[in-house]
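I have been asked to look over a protein record a colleague put together. This is what I was given:
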Amino acid sequence: MNNKTKITLLAALAVALIGIFVFVDLGSSWRYVLPRRAMKILAIVITGSAIAFSSMIFQTVTNNRILTPSVLGLDSLYMLIQTFIIFMYGSAQVSTLSKNMNFIISVGLMVMFAGVLYKLLFKREGRNLFFLLLIGLVMGTLFQSMSTFMQVIMDPNEFLIVQDRMFASFNNVNTDLVIVSIIAFAAIGVYFTKFSKYMDVMSLGREHAVNLGVPYNLVVRRMLIIVVILVSISTALVGPITFLGLLVVNVTYQMFKTYQHKVMIPAAMLISISALVGGQMIVERIFTFSTTLSVIINFIGGVYFIYLLLKENKS
């Protein structure tokens, strides 16, 4: 089976799952249910696409298949921003702030953090990308500790609001951000086309990319900024998800024995969408909301991550 046929089948599977999710068991009050399901499925599609897209290009620039963008500490930074806003201004004040404004502030601060981090890293020669990952890991731990400190001393009622934002939830998707997320995602897609020609070469590693004429540092900076914005979009919509990107990208590598990103990126996005929509249907119709999809994803992803570590160790 060639790659074109595989992508066609994945697209058909994704469309079929979306159709079942939206149209099955609508009931007599379909005028009320249908628009809400449509917005929810739109948010899930954007989330799945953003996670797959960001994980794929992140693994390409790091040339490592067991890393996810969460290594940079972006999830922890997002939670620190949310905790700090509620800690300083209180939930009553936060409720007056529109969700779109909160989203823009959070994305802006995360991009600024990434910009400062990359500037400090790349202004000196000899520092490689793994130094950036180490710094990101340390900063992520610091952000998490600061968030925990504020959560411990804040009012319990305020903490409950923070707690709602600490865990990813596909049962309560932030549909108010769908429109701004679509605009941001489309802009990222257009911007990425300028650098997409370098991706196949970047996957060969830094030395090969430099020798073949790729402006390596420039491309890495631009790709990491794209990763930051995509992670911000997915986190703002449903909350932090650690292992989904790792899962879908490695499944894509197993299904498509190719280096071409024009094949792997859309394939990873389709796999991610199918996994999220299918998983959410299982949570709603089989488990009747007794668990959440993020718990299942993190459990399967954690086991798969250990498997990848053992496999890499043997090789």
Notes: The mean pLDDT is 80. The chain is about 80% helix and 0% strand. The longest helix spans residues 30-62. The CA atoms of residues 101 and 177 lie 10 Å apart.
